[in-house]
Design a protein that fits this description.
The strands form 5 sheets. Strands 5-4-1-18-19-20-21 form a 7-stranded mixed β-sheet. It has about 575 residues and is an alpha/beta fold. Helices cover about 35% and strands about 20% of the residues. The longest helix is centred in the C-terminal third of the chain and has 21 residues.
Length: about 575
């Protein structure tokens, strides 16, 4: 049995239509098609690509179809804010693949779908207009701040709540199907033996899936467990926890809820019933000899390869999305409940997290890479037995049509140049030859245009950016002489290259090694060891020491490309 996991698709329908507006986008001179797209500038300031992932999604589904995989799980953020037109476009594609290839799709919620427990008005100001400038598309005229601003008003850009998500995506796991051998929610009262489709359908109704997140505030929980094939239980955990901002406010006020992006740390405080439900499902799975696989949007284990203390030391406790790192208690509660294997998204990274406990229990969290970030890909789980699994990461490198929108970006670039704006995006991204290179260029620009200023100490970056690899070698071991050949080899790269490589490892883990010269990787190890042995009170040198320690940890984590899991032996074995 093989199951594909596609996380953080962030689907936006480039060729969608609004039900209440004549606007169909701007015409692409390459194809003659009307296209609703976001600007390249907005993409390169975001942790996700908005446009080209449309084509990557189709390429991934085609690849899954070629492999004859019939079960596909989507651990949240399958749309970018759950707007009605995007949900329609996504549903159309999933329906097509279900009919053509007999696939079945099982979704769970992400923090971008829904953004809020209830429908929320809003929009985006960074769509592209016909001149390459920015266009505002909003759900309500009240968001227009000045009369001269170009705007399209449509209800289809409002951010869906749970009810809208259920109405659109009910055929993809949120409701039971007559094909299911078993289906249940945390609020179901029937046992495995008592399951029937009629009862399950009743339990899937919106009103029967509510819980009190805070006194007086009832919100939905779309968790479910399903048996799509004999012996396999897929547990889709709704990790969204929308906590009220003001406990004295209106429980139905769309603006009175905090976002859910922190993940399981909020489940600990405001959604504890999930842990007892997981324990119950684990027990039932054992009783009936079922293989249980869980998936959620959010990670349940550390995803920074034990580098959190160094990251906090160098950058500060509020940087690098540290608030999204789950507390140890999350893993402990899941392990206590008996959970063993969990797939997650949210972070747009490729990673494997392993935690062993005193009672020989082992918990594994597999981070599924996003199709909208570097390195784009998905995971295939092969179930060999209840204790033995194989996990393979499939990189989506070649994507048909990924350059389709480039003529429109050319127009945008010329518009930005005419405006004489500083620090505009690098035009060379339009020279990339494949989708994977495009996502690497996206990461490079994201580091330059956003991460350097938002995450890193300014004085450290100013000093470090002046250094070559040769300079770093000499700083790391002041009393040591190096050959001229060694110095020349280290001089081939600089600190900015190392900084990009650090982000590559954070995003892609061991997959990044395919894009970084082997000699440089060996040189990083030399620097890390040299700095580790360097005894100094110099603040800058100690910052460099911490930097290379983070780089070393992120580049040497557990197997995350292709590996076997053996729960009986308590080990993960890399497959070359």
């Amino acid at each position: 049995m093989k199951i594909a996991f596609l996380a953080d698709v962030h689907f936006q329908d480039l060729y969608g239509e609004f039900s209440d507006s004549d606007f169909k986008g701007i015409e692409n001179p390459k194809t003659g098609k009307k296209t609703i797209l976001r600007t390249m500038d907005s993409q390169l300031h975001s942790t996700r690509i908005f446009n080209e992932n449309y084509f990557a999604f189709l390429a991934a589904l085609d690849d899954i179809a070629k492999r004859n995989i019939k079960i596909v799980a989507l651990p949240g953020d399958y749309t970018d804010d759950g707007q009605a037109y995007n949900l329609r476009g996504l549903r159309k594609i999933l329906d097509e693949y279900q009919k053509k290839y007999q696939m079945r799709f099982f979704t769970t919620t992400g923090n971008h779908d829904p953004v809020n427990p209830f429908l929320k008005q809003g929009g985006k100001s960074d769509f592209m207009d016909e001149n390459g400038g920015e266009l505002l598309i909003i759900s309500d005229e009240k968001f227009i701040k000045n009369k001269d601003q170009k705007a399209v008003v449509t209800k289809d850009i409002a951010m869906s709540g749970y009810l809208e998500i259920l109405n659109s995506m009910k055929d993809f796991g949120f409701n039971p199907s007559k094909k299911d051998l078993f289906w249940q929610t945390p609020f179901s009262t029937y046992s495995y033996e008592e399951f029937n489709f009629k009862n399950a359908l009743k339990d899937s109704e919106f009103s029967n899936r509510m819980y009190e997140v805070s006194p007086g505030y009832s919100v939905p929980d779309f968790s479910y467990v399903v048996e799509p094939a004999e012996g396999i239980w897929l547990m889709a955990i709704d990790g969204n926890t929308y906590i009220p901002k003001n406990n004295n406010g209106n429980p139905k006020d769309e603006n009175n809820f905090n976002g859910a992006s922190i993940g399981y740390n909020n489940v600990l405080t405001n959604k504890k019933h999930l842990f007892s439900w997981v324990e119950k499902v684990v027990s039932e799975a054992k009783k009936h000899n079922k293989t249980l696989i869980a998936f959620t949007h959010y990670p349940i284990l550390d995803f920074n390869d034990n580098a959190n203390s160094e990251i906090k030391k160098l950058l500060g406790k509020d940087k690098w999305q540290m608030d999204r790192v789950p507390k140890d208690e999350v893993a402990e509660l899941f392990a206590k409940a008996g959970l063993k294997l969990h797939f997650a998204g949210h972070m747009h990274i490729n990673d494997t997290g392993i935690k062993k406990f005193q009672n020989d229990k082992m918990l594994i969290n597999i981070q599924v890479p996003s199709l909208a970030a570097y390195i784009p890909g998905y995971k295939i789980l092969t179930v060999n037995s209840q204790d033995e699994f194989e996990v393979e990461t499939v990189s989506i490198k070649k994507v048909p049509r990924f350059t389709e929108l480039f003529p429109l970006y050319e127009r945008e670039f010329e518009h930005l140049k005419a405006e004489n704006l500083n620090n505009i995006w690098n035009h060379d991204i339009l020279k990339t030859k494949n989708y994977q290179d495009f996502t690497l260029f996206h990461l490079k620009e994201l580091v330059r245009l956003r991460f350097i200023s938002s995450d890193w100490p300014k004085d450290f970056i100013e000093k470090a950016s002046q250094l070559s690899g040769k300079d770093l070698l000499e700083l790391s071991s002041k009393n040591k002489d190096f050959s001229e050949k060694t110095k020349r080899n280290f001089a081939k790269w600089n600190f900015e290259d190392a900084l990009l490589n650090l982000y590559q490892f954070q995003s892609a883990d061991e997959l990044a090694k395919k894009d970084i010269p082997k000699k440089r990787l060996a040189q990083y190890k030399v620097l890390e060891q040299n700095f580790e042995n360097l005894k100094t009170q110099d603040q800058f040198l100690n910052q460099l020491k911490t930097f290379f320690k983070i780089l070393e940890k992120l580049s040497s984590g557990d197997a995350s490309d292709h590996f076997r899991i053996d729960f009986k032996k308590g080990e993960i074995v890399k497959i070359n």
